[in-house]
């Protein structure tokens, strides 16, 4: 597993200026155990002082990761596509700038990895509070540690082409805040994609 977390300057290395004075540095291997705690034989996110401690209640161990990946695969088989949205239009290749995608609460990172293969020219940034994504991402994917509950997204206003948020209903303290942040960072005409499980998948 590999991850990144905010610390210091004005621009991320994807060229999008941040909304604060933060940049990214790699999370060291010895730091990973501090993000987890064992309870009743299952591994959970330790949360620390994060407000998300009150909202994300599922384990983050191998059994849960297999379940998460299985639901992703099931949804893809039901819809027949990686993303049931006009994402090709939003990410149409252009010379003037690189297209940017932000995946909120990325989990194991399957969605951004699949998207990266379809759109190799897009910069894909996958955010989550828990470092459980692959340590070998595609060249155009970067996994970042970020608490979408406790802090604003690091991206500048009107700097992102697509924001994707799936299986987030147990994470954000207030979904309205997540929507507000998505609207802030999206460029005019940008695309917001939401997907949640209820009695049936709602996209």
UniProtKB/TrEMBL annotation:
Keywords: Methyltransferase, Transferase. This is S-adenosyl-L-methionine-dependent methyltransferase.
